[in-house]
Each structure stands twice: as structure tokens, then as C-alpha cells.
Amino acid sequence: MPEPAKNRLANRHEYIIHLTYKPTYYYDLAAYRQYMETNANPGDVWMIEPERSMSAHLAPFPKEIVRRAITLACPEQVCLTCGRPRRRVEERTAILDETRPQARRAMELAREHDLTPEHIKAIQATGVSDVGKATKFQNGTGRNAAEVQRLAAEAKAALGGYFREFTFAKRETVGWTDCGHGTPGRGVVLDPFVGTGTTAGVAVDMGRDAIGVDLIPMPDTGLWTAQ
């Protein structure tokens, strides 16, 4: 946005505020990681290019903002009986991000020393590190079964400083939660200031339902139905 003041720097970011009415809210970080093509948490800074709009609306925003928000916070399916969203069930694998030299070296060492899937699981149960201060912060370290600790020690001897790489292994989706009612419906996106319908249009494109409210809706978007 233009900055009228001459004695301060122009603002180059806007906040997106995530509000929930209860602590156990739906949030699919795995879907967002896939969307952003990364195995790590992508962080909370979004670099999004502006989009040109020919609309008469005074405050349009890029569709990419909506795609990211829906990916994170609106489930694909919700039970029409109890209202519970279907949540992703994930398991951690032994696959690392091969674009990182450290990850490639860790996998090489694991193969050279014939580490088994049980060794990898023991590493992941132990946590980021099994030495120094980190032992006080990793729930698994020092609290696992003797067999797990033995396997983790063997892996540590084989991997050395590359031990921690396997705590960042990729996750895979193995299923979805099911409340048992058998009445799935699409997730719903509500836009209380729908304007030209950018949010509603993106929601429909992403397989969700959408509800839009506005004092002066703009009917030329093709999204509106008479009520």
C-alpha cells in the first residue's frame, strides 16, 4: 500500500490473523507442506505476488492467499452428523530430503552399516539429539524401552553427527480418521465480506462449499444465487 507519511518506512507486509473459538481446531500442516513442496515447516512469512484485478471492488486480494488458508484450515470432508472433520493420519518414513547434502550422507551411512527400519524408528523415538542439553527437552531420550535405546545407540555409532537427520524424515499419509457415521460432506468456507467472490470461487475450485455474505454483493461474478 502507498505510504503517505514522509518520516517512516513504507509497510511491505500485511498480517493474516488466525482466530479459533476452541483450542482443538483443524489444521492440516501436512497438506500445506505438500502444497509448498517442502518437508519442513514452511514458516509464517508468505511471499505472494499481486494479481491484477479489473473489478470495481476497492480491496481485491490474490487468490493464492485463499488457496493457502483453505489448504491449512478447511477440511476436505466433514461429517454431516457430528460435524467432525476427517483428519489426516501420518507415519514417519526413513526417506530424507535428498536435496540436502547432509541427508544424502546420512542415508549413505545407514546403507553402509546395514541399519534396519527398527534402527530408524529408534532414532525417531529418541529425538533430535541424545547428548548434552537436548536430553532434557526430548521426551523420548532416556525414557524409551531398553531395546529402543540399544538400537538408537547402534545407530548413533554408525551415523555420528548425522544421527539427527533421520528425525526430519518425510511423513506419508496412510489414511484418514473416520467417525463411523458414514455421512461425509464437503468442508465449508465462510466469507462474511465476500465482495467479488474471490474466496468463494477458490473454495469451490478446491472442492469445498462456500457461503458468502456482503451488504452489496457484486452479481457479475457468476457465483451468486438468488435468495
From TrEMBL:
* Presence of keyword Methyltransferase: yes
Which keywords label this protein?
Answer: Methyltransferase, Transferase
GO MF annotations for this entry?
DNA binding; N-methyltransferase activity
An annotated GO BP: methylation
Does the keyword section mention ATP-binding? no
Q: Which Pfam families match?
A: N6_N4_Mtase
Q: What is its EC number?
A: 2.1.1.-
Q: Tell me where on the tree of life, at the top rank, the source sits.
A: Bacteria
Stretches assigned to the DNA methylase N-4/N-6 domain: 183-215
The record's InterPro entries line, in alphabetical order, gives:
DNA_methylase_N4/N6 (IPR002941), RM_Methyltransferase (IPR001091), SAM-dependent_MTases_sf (IPR029063)
Family label: Belongs to the N(4)/N(6)-methyltransferase family.
According to UniProt, the name of this protein is Methyltransferase
* Organism whose genome encodes this protein: Cutibacterium granulosum DSM 20700
